[in-house]
């Protein structure tokens, strides 16, 4: 299942990331924030307009806003 399809509030672990689908500088930023294989995450909120961007993702004690296209590049396994 892709991270962008995860239900709000449900915990999951990132099992893989399609780094080729993400620009190199954006991928570097996501890795620095802890969004990489093995990270435990959950969807906190979704945007309300159009494409429902951005998506607020919890990683540890942080909440990070990411684009839906970035979430779609991440495969997760629900907990």
**CATH class descriptor:** Mainly Beta
Just name the CATH architecture. Answer: Roll
First CA to last CA: what distance?
A: 12 Å
Strand content: 35-45%
* Shape category: globular
Binned, the helix content reads 10-25%
| Strand order, largest beta sheet | 4-3-2-1-5
- The CATH topology is given as SH3 type barrels
Low-confidence stretches: none
**Count of discrete domains:** 1
Order of helices and strands: EHEEEHE
Structural class category: alpha+beta
User: Could you state the CATH homologous superfamily?
Assistant: Ferrous iron transport protein A (FeoA)
The biggest sheet amounts to: 5 strands, antiparallel
Radius of gyration: 11 Å
Number of helices: 2
Mean pLDDT: 93
Number of strands: 5
GO molecular function, one term: transition metal ion binding
Pfam families: FeoA
Keywords: Iron
Protein name: Ferrous iron transport protein A
Write up what this structure looks like.
With 79 residues, this protein is α+β, with helices and mostly antiparallel strands. It has a single domain, classed as Roll (SH3 type barrels). Helices cover 18% and strands 37% of the residues. The chain has 2 helices and 5 strands; from the N terminus they run E-H-E-E-E-H-E. The longest helix has 9 residues.
């Amino acid at each position: 299942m892709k991270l962008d399809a995860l239900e709000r509030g449900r915990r999951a672990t990132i099992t893989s990331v399609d780094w080729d689908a993400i620009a190199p500088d954006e991928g570097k930023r996501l890795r620095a924030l802890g969004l990489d294989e093995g990270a435990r995450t959950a969807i906190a909120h979704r945007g309300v307009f159009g494409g429902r961007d951005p998506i607020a993702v919890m990683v540890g004690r942080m909440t990070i806003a990411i684009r839906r296209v970035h979430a779609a590049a991440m495969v997760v396994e629900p907990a």
